[in-house]
Amino acid sequence: MDMVASVLAFLAHAGHSVVSCADDLVSWLQTLLYVNAIQPLLFHAGMMDVDEDTYDALYWVIIGVLEVGLMYALLRPLEALAPAEKWRDRKGVGVDALYTWVTRLGILNLLFFFTMQPFFDHAQSTLRLMGVKTVDLDNLWPGVTTEPLVAFAIYLVVLDFCSYWYHRLSHRYGVWWELHAVHHSQRKMSLWCDDRNHLLDVLGQSCMFAVVALVIGVPPAQFVVLVALTNFMQSVQHANIRVHFGWLGERLLVSPRFHRRHHAIGYGHEGTTYGCNFGVLFPWWDMMFGSASFNREIEPTGVRDQLEGVRYGEGFWAQQGYAFARIGRRLRSRAPRAASAARREARDDATVS
Ligand SMILES: [Zn+2]
Ligand SMILES: [Zn+2]
Fold it and tell me: Which residues form the Fatty acid hydroxylase domain (predicted)?
């Protein structure tokens, strides 16, 4: 037991050192860029009233750039060395890179967390004054947050559980699926594909993630690391690489193969009919709730009706717009069906009476 405790203490210490080193580097870059580039620009544009907010926002932008740079440096060589699928060209992949920059520099997760935090703090202190216990981790398990590594692991698992259900439900409901289908419409999955999402879906996802994190009491510094880790793991899963984590590894962490199965035409997504492998970080939820499939085949990815000529758009705005068009069609086709059901019911009532 002593051994476990000292290993945990060592890991916590190492993790803390890495995070504080990264924080020092980002802060140094933030000041350098701000003083030499951003501040003079703001000064010339007569916008010095927003200088403090801009300085703060720059921190997150730098984190986003470093994260994307690291992801590219690690995953792109692997894609070239051991691709899961060989393509004639990389046409259609570029738009996903655009999504990545928009999402990771917008850093919506962080933005939501930090703008909602004061409201949550206020609500929590009001509840405490009223004698109501909140659900944050320290209340449920007093003292656990003094072990940062244990608390971090619990936060990660709780957030991943919620992400599993968010993802699974987005396949279940028609209108929601049409938004999520933007993600599934990529037939050339690559390291960039993770952020290819409808903007409304991104908004919903970031909002859910931030609210859950605030409710369970994730401290800001840990939230930044949680988001960075989740983003990185998701880039790995979408990368066009032929790797297998081994029997056990595939069951511990979502691998590129496991997630590729989720994107496979005819198996993984299939709109609201069925689906498998919804897990975001851990495949445990799929195993627990009967939606796991550990197929080893590399299958073509995309949405089935793309093969029948349904268009999902090539460019960013087309993809965003087509989703609304599909939602419109779905709602219109639902309206006559509802009307005829109502007519049938009225007829049946008349016959009965
Ligand atoms: Zn995916
Ligand atoms: Zn999906």
Answer: 152-291
